[in-house]
Amino acid sequence: MPMASTPHSLMAVNQRPEQVFVRGAGAYLYDREGRRYLDWVQGWSVNCLGHSPAVIAQALCAQAHTLINPGPAFYNEPAMELAELLTRHSCFDQVFFASSGAEANEGAIKLARKWGQRHKNGAFEIITFDNAFHGRTLATMSASGKPGWDTLFAPQVPGFPKARFNDIESVRALISTNAVAIMLEPTQGEAGVIPADMAFLQGLRALCDEHELLLIVDEVQTGCGRTGTLFAYEQYGIEPDIMTLGKGLGGGVPLSALLAKEACCCFEAGDQGGTFCGNALTCAAGVAVMRSLLADGFLAESREVCARLRSGLVDVAMEFQLGEVRGRGALLALELGRDIAAEVVTLAREMGLLLNAPRAHCLRFMPPLNSTAAEVQEGLGLLRQVLATLLKNQALPAVAAAPDASRDALRVTVYDDRLHRAEVISLWRQVFGYETAHNAPELAIDRKLAMRDGLFFVATVGGAVAGTLMAGYDGHRGWLYSVGVHPAQQKTGVGAALIRHAERALKDRGCLKINLQIIGSNERVTGFYQALGFVVEPRISMGKILHKADMTPSPDSPCRVQEPGGGAVAG
Ligand SMILES: Cc1ncc(COP(=O)(O)O)c(C=O)c1O
Q1: Ranges for all domains in the chain classified under CATH 3.90.1150.10
Q2: Is 227 exposed, middle or buried (0-12, 13-18, 19+ CB in 10 A)?
Q3: Which residues are CB-contacts of 363 (< 8 A; sequence separation ≥ 6)?
Q4: CB 560 within 8 A of CB 505
Q5: Could you tell me if 196 and 189 are in contact, meaning their C-beta atoms sit under 8 angstroms apart?
Q6: Is 447 exposed, middle or buried (0-12, 13-18, 19+ CB in 10 A)?
Q7: Beta strand 214-218 with 179-184: parallel, antiparallel or unpaired?
């Protein structure tokens, strides 16, 4: 008689729903009652290729029949092949394999401390961040900034001073002679999917260079294609010294990795190890995952489908007057604006959709990277049903009329529209969709998207889209932009704020002059722009010089857009 049919002999370390899952296939999970669930948790983003994908099943099966674990003191082929794949496609030189994200992070901490002993007079402090999550071993819990964890299993492992995320000055203030490294997640997942700003991560790299510190990125969650590129650090134009991977690396099989540049690889024999580390079975799964992620067009297609999900979430946020949508690729969050995330998760599960709530007021979406457009539509439809059911009796707050209170603070976000086309179109439509009789928005958008180096600025107030500004380089007229403000937000300073942000961003890129197209201009509108320093010009509606020295941008050398990723917060 099998005994595994009741859960009572499992330690109760968390609250689990009653379902017992017996089968998984791609985006779907099945319970033992035969119910099907669209799974947007995917084992907390470990199943990057969905449940039980054939490539992993086949790799495991073949490897299990050949060699499972010769032991970490011997070489094996899958481990060598995986290390070679990872170093060839990253900026790192050497790899150590482990089984969990926490174990990889422990390795990173030990490596940094060893490097400090060798090169920095025993410096050992690793600056980490409030609300960070690095794992559940004692050292990684101490490195984490989860509220309450400082006392949970006191005393903590010392040496992890906490700075504020996206606040470079708070990091600078913690650098002492004891400091050896800075460690962060490029997107804080457990904190509610908070991406590091472009300037922040670049600033950390510069700080590390200035003070001879190691930059450690914990890409346990963001790595392996989760945020749209193979590794998230690539989107910031920097190279870290150390990186950790986990979750997606094994596609559901316990496998993690510590990667480092050669100059940091200072472990000596006996310093680091573990009986499961680098075993042939899990590394074979890792090879299958990496080959899939590196296959032609895989990541581009994943970005495209995930952009649909993001844009759909933006639509849902507008429809139900919720808060902002954050994140990149297949790691997204939706702010609900009230503490109902747990109820949403429960009702969604009853309706056949598995979701995660990292915070009481926000949902996290971690679909498989190979999701289809149909699955995205299905999931968004289920989410709409859940929200409609839960919110039908609740009065929805109206879009704020003026951006003054801090909750309603005006926030400007920059998107690289080549990576986020669907989302950009959806956001644009939210502003221009209100007055489209004379102004076909699709055409305008396509014209703008056809320009080189397109940047798209979105102003939100209290999470709702309040205005957009599209900037692009069109070859003969230089940089152009057009601005739209939601009718409910006109005359509240949104337009001027967007223009200020865009001008600063374009000026930083060496842009010499911007030109403005005004649709349906009248005296009030031109007066508004004149007050911001524009002058009426022939051929274009109005123009403004940003750099006085040279006013003629060469068509051959447009201002380059530095940000390869989208969604960076400009201010
Ligand atoms: C950024 C990050 N680091 C480390 C970990 C810990 O990984 P594991 O649970 O495999 O130990 C997690 C898990 O969620 C994570 O998100």
Answers
A1: 302-391
A2: buried
A3: 333, 334, 336, 341, 344, 345, 355, 356, 357
A4: no
A5: no
A6: middle
A7: parallel
| pLDDT tens-digit profile, the chain (571 residues) | 444 466 788 998 988 999 999 999 999 999 999 999 999 999 999 999 999 999 999 999 999 999 999 999 999 999 999 999 999 999 999 999 999 999 999 999 999 999 999 999 999 999 999 999 999 999 999 999 999 999 999 999 999 999 999 999 999 999 999 999 999 999 999 999 999 999 999 999 999 999 999 999 999 999 999 999 999 999 999 999 999 999 999 999 999 999 999 999 999 999 999 999 999 999 999 999 999 999 999 999 999 999 999 999 999 998 988 989 999 999 999 999 889 999 999 999 999 999 999 999 999 999 999 999 999 999 999 999 999 999 875 544 333 333 333 335 677 777 766 556 667 667 766 666 544 334 455 555 656 655 656 677 888 776 677 888 877 766 555 666 777 777 777 777 788 888 888 787 777 666 777 777 665 566 777 777 787 777 877 666 777 777 644 334 333 333 333 232 222 222 2
Decide: 330 and 47 in contact? Cβ < 8 Å. no
pTM check: above 0.90: no
Q: Locate CATH 3.40.640.10 in the chain.
A: 54-294
In ligand 1, which atom is closest to the CA atom of 45? 14
First to last CA, the chain: 62
Q: How far is the CA of 284 from the centre of ligand 1 (A)?
A: 21
Q: Is 164 helix (H, G, I), strand (E, B) or coil?
A: coil
Rg of the chain (C-alpha set): 25
Distance 335 CA to ligand 1 centre (A): 22
Which ligand 1 atom sits nearest the alpha carbon of residue 46?
Answer: 10
Q: Which atom of ligand 1 is nearest to the CA of 246?
A: 10
Q: Which CATH architecture has domain 302-391?
A: Alpha-Beta Complex (3.90)
| 292 contact partners, CB below 8 Å, separation of at least 6 | 49, 53, 55, 251, 298, 370
CATH, range 54-294: 3.40.640.10
408-569, which class in CATH?
alpha beta
Residues near ligand 1 (Cβ within 6 A): 44, 100-102, 105, 133-135, 185, 189-190, 218, 220-221, 246
